[in-house]
Write a structure and sequence with these properties.
The protein folds into 3 domains: 5-293, no CATH class; 301-413, no CATH class; 421-479, Arc Repressor Mutant, subunit A. The protein is an alpha+beta fold and 480 residues long. Helix 3 links the parallel strand 13 (216-221) and strand 14 (251-256). Strands 1, 2, 6, 7, 8, 11, 12, 13, 14 and 15 form a 10-stranded mixed β-sheet that branches. Strands 5-4-16 form a 3-stranded antiparallel β-sheet, with no helix packed on it. Helix 11 crosses helix 12 (406-413), helix 13 crosses helix 15 (449-460) and helix 15 (449-460) packs across helix 16 (467-479). It has helices at 58-70, 167-183, 224-243, 289-297, 303-312, 317-324, 327-335, 343-360, 365-368, 372-383, 389-402, 406-413, 421-434, 436-443, 449-460, 467-479, and strands at residues 8-19, 74-75, 78-79, 82-85, 95-98, 105-106, 109-112, 121-132, 136-139, 144-147, 154-160, 196-206, 216-221, 251-256, 261-267, 277-278, 285-286.
Length: 480
């Protein structure tokens, strides 16, 4: 039976604002460092004082080009900056310097991971443009204050076409986009610090319809879960309005995570409300073809290309996706590989042991886990049968706590695997001599007792004997 929800289709477009990884702001030399005291990183330029002039940060242009190339955009050789006028306390000039009709990047697309049945999905981009961030309002019980540290921090806004049809797809798009930004070193993507945030444009229409419904914009969502929850709520809200005979108002909403609902903030502005006009204090931005090619030549391997390489080298699609979800994890995995024959074993170790430690820690990934080179050394010892897999896990847990290297930890804990055939043969002889009845049963055809003998020998050797040597010598002695 078709439900009311099934009769409708969501139409979703996303606008992502992300801080760029620069040391200084877009039009002045103030620091972009997060976490400074209120209004420490400010100057007359980013405070909008009379008579000051903006000077464009070249690094911002390079990072915008890197992002555009990674997203398959056309890089505009000529673009201009515009003034976007609106009046909020956190906007000291009374306008924001942005780009409107002539952005630096046009078109492009982001490919989402294939569906379970292998269906490919592509989200088209409208544009990527450069703009400056506003300050931050801080509301107290008796007053509202403004911290202008963020004012003038360089942003790019990445605007998608309304190609998304579900909250789940929106989340997948954002994760893919964030991964690309981190891989090309354009942004750190730290949503908890506000350096990657999203506005959602959501509307609904009857399935099969071609015209778009009236959309609601949900502002400043700073977590994937909030984006997905807000879209789910908004789709249900709009369907309920339409089903009851009402009309959806074109509004801007805020998401209330405590109540899990969107609330109207204001009526939706149109472009003419912002009175866009070319910024008179900045010349047109001319991007030489040589600069574009230099940036292209410096581009790193992108997530999609890296994933394809991992699969070619023997990992599954799932394993590659888990490792590539975070650039730090993928880089860590690759740093464990020198000298290893079994890439899959390294992938499994990182996905289980390393990620478990990282999840359980409140430290950044690089500080929470042992150095990748030491984990690689540990895995090489397993591969060379110098230690057992269980011994490696014991050593890894100790390394997390002590910060010591693999070899030092193995030596300190006495975990080195014994492969001396004479020592293992002596242990086998003692076990067989102590179990004459079971030995007779085995030789009478009870083959399952082989595992019992292996366990007894391993126990006799303190768990340090090489399993392969035990198996080989034990089979020979039982056959004798």
């Amino acid at each position: 039976m078709t439900t009311t929800r099934d009769a409708y289709e969501a139409v979703i477009g996303l606008e992502v604002h992300t801080h760029l990884l620069t040391r200084s702001k877009l039009f002045c030399g103030c620091s972009t460092t997060f976490g400074a005291g209120p209004n420490e990183n400010v100057c007359p330029v980013c405070m909008g004082m009379p008579g000051v002039l903006p000077v464009l940060n070249r690094r911002v242009v390079e990072l915008a080009i890197r992002t555009g190339l990674a997203a398959h955009c056309t890089i505009a050789p000529y673009s201009i900056f515009d003034r976007k006028s609106y009046f909020y306390p956190d906007l000291p000039k009374g306008y924001q310097i942005s780009q409107y009709e002539t952005p630096i990047c046009k078109g492009g697309y982001i490919d989402l991971p294939p569906t379970e049945n292998g269906e490919s999905r592509r989200v088209r981009l409208t544009r990527i443009h450069i703009e400056e961030d506003a300050g931050k309002n801080i509301h107290g019980e008796s007053a509202s204050l403004v911290d202008f540290n963020r004012s003038g921090v360089p942003l790019i806004e990445i605007v998608s076409e309304p190609d998304l049809r579900s909250a789940e797809d929106a989340g997948a798009y954002l994760r893919q986009l964030r991964a690309i930004l981190r891989y090309v070193d354009a942004s750190d993507g730290k949503m908890e610090e506000g350096s990657f945030r999203c506005d959602c444009n959501v509307s609904v229409r009857k399935r099969g319809a071609t015209e778009y419904g009236v959309r609601t914009e949900i502002k400043n969502l700073n977590s994937f879960r909030f984006v997905e929850d807000a879209i789910e709520y908004e789709v249900d809200r709009q369907i309920a309005i339409v089903e009851s005979g009402g009309k959806v108002a074109q509004e801007t909403h805020l998401w209330d995570p405590a109540r899990k609902e969107t609330r109207p903030m204001r009526s939706k502005e149109y472009a003419n409300d912002y009175r866009y006009f070319p910024e008179p204090d900045l010349p047109p931005l001319i991007v030489p073809a040589e600069l574009i090619e230099n940036v292209r030549a410096s581009m790193p391997e992108l997530p999609a290309d890296r994933k394809a390489r991992y699969v070619r080298e023997g990992l599954t699609e799932y394993e590659a996706a888990v490792l590539l979800a975070d650039r730090d994890v993928a880089d860590y995995f690759e740093a464990t590989l020198p000298g290893l024959k079994n890439r899959k074993a390294a992938a499994n170790w990182v996905m289980t042991e390393v990620l478990r430690v990282a999840r359980d820690s409140d430290k950044p990934f690089a500080e929470a886990v042992p150095p990748a080179a030491e984990v690689g050394a540990l895995l090489r010892m397993v591969e060379a049968q110098k230690i057992s897999l269980n011994a490696a896990k014991t050593a890894f847990a100790a390394m997390v706590k002590s910060g010591k290297g693999a070899e030092a930890t193995i030596a300190e804990l006495g975990l080195a695997q014994v492969s001396d055939e004479s020592a293992i043969a002596a242990a086998i002889d003692k076990v067989l001599a102590a179990e004459p009845d079971k030995l007779a049963e085995y030789r009478a055809g009870r083959d399952k007792l082989f595992g019992f003998f292996v366990g007894a020998v391993m126990k006799a050797m303190g768990g340090k004997a090489n399993p392969k040597v035990i198996n080989d010598l034990l089979r020979a002695k039982l056959a004798g």
